[in-house]
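Honest question from a wet-lab person: if I give you the sequences of every part of a complex, can you actually get the arrangement of the whole thing, not just the pieces? Trying it with mine:
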Amino acid sequence: MGWVACRSIENLRRSLVLALLIAVGVQTSWAEDESENTALKFAPEAAATFNKRCTACHTYGKGIKVGPDLKGVTERRKRDWLIKFIHASSVVIKSGDRTATDLFAQFKQQRMPDWTDLSDKQINDILDYVAIGGPDIKPADERSAELGTAADAENGRDIFSGRKGLKYGVQACAACHSVQGAVFGGSLGPDLSRTYFKYQDRALTEFLRHPCFQWSAGTPEAHYLTAKESFSLKVFLRQAALQQSAKTDKREEHSRSAKADGTSGHGGPGDAQKGKAP
Amino acid sequence: MRANFLFSVWPYMAFSLLAVGLAIRCLLEQKRMDAVRAEMAEAWSVFGGANVWRAVVALLLVVHVAVLLLPQSVLAWNSHPLRLYLFEAIALIAGLAALVGWAKLTWRQVSHGNRSVITELSDTIFLALLLLAIASGVLMAALYRWGSLWGALVLTPYVASILRGGPAPGLATQMPFFVRLHVFSAFAMLAVLPLTRLAAFFVFALHSSLALMGRPVSAAVHAAERWLRRHNPAPWLWPEED
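Yes, you can. This is the full assembly:
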């Protein structure tokens, strides 16, 4: 029994560590991409530290976990108090601070670890990140391609064809792929004219986050596309898929109408002249 | 498992067979350079072919060496679509011309007299592998467009990984069949080379370069001998008894 409990605790711990590592990695790359051109700027390290140290016990807008929900914490408490508490909660509780002792009592006398290794600047950065709703900021590539503009589609076409270089030096899609009627690319990989409809927005976002091919001898590249590049590609692929399906619809409609003309007008008076028409 | 053997073990086996084969031929034919020269002339008459064949083979070699040694320059050149189309078109035309050249060469090989069964067999195997390499290259260029782009991105790192001693077979095994066939036949050609008449060129080159490298050593030995003759200590050590 004890052994089973130990095993499950060990498994739980492993899963938590794994989830934490993934969250740190993803959040760091989002933050880098976000910082490219968004108005909401935060230090990528702050996001990484938040994910590494806070999310194990706190949620952001999802209620109490081990400690309180951190959404709006910068409005509920004063910045000086937060810095002191995060730095050494034990000292603040021992000092008899009313808020600290209340929290201590409310959360089953479980004290927050003293993050003495964090500087005031690091804590301030984390608080800034929380204050601007950092944990809620979605990376740019998760936006639906429907929201993309013509400029995004054009940017996507340039990225696809290689007219515009990619930030991390990855080769353009056209080295191996084509998009019918838009980019005369390679044929090693499949034609991507209808990929947007095949994968749909969300799956395509996931797909574009990883290299589709092993390029180098070592481990797969840590950086592939930025969120903005990925979004532009999605917009371009959506546009291409729409154009393709419009063409197919037109062709089908044309063949349907030709068939209808053929059956309805069979043996009609105008048939001889129709046959002569170029 | 098989793919792993073909793309991580086989290349080293091919290099070893090439090195050992050439070394053995060098040792065996060390004192028979006239015979090697005669064999070179024979090989030239069999494999030399017409001027077009030689030009095409040289062009294809240059293209392959450029993709393998200067991948970044090739990628930069190919960054303009027109230059890319030109590069690919030239390579494809050269490949097709090489196929025609190969047919002529094989006809000559069939009609040419020969010395031994082993050389005859090795030459035939070498020509068969050459056909595989050229045909798979032409099919690659025709079916999987922009080989100069993805070749520089995937096959160059693969060859580099082989040369560095840490093969990455995954780079080759993920490619279509014709690409894998092209890579395999290239290594197989290296393995068979020492048994063919073409090896005479390499034996001659190795012998000449060894002789060239050995020249300073033999010059030093001669100088030492001359000095010893002039300053021979023997009369001083053992004076002649009168």
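Two things worth pointing out. The radius of gyration of chain B is 24 Å. The mean pLDDT of chain B is 89.
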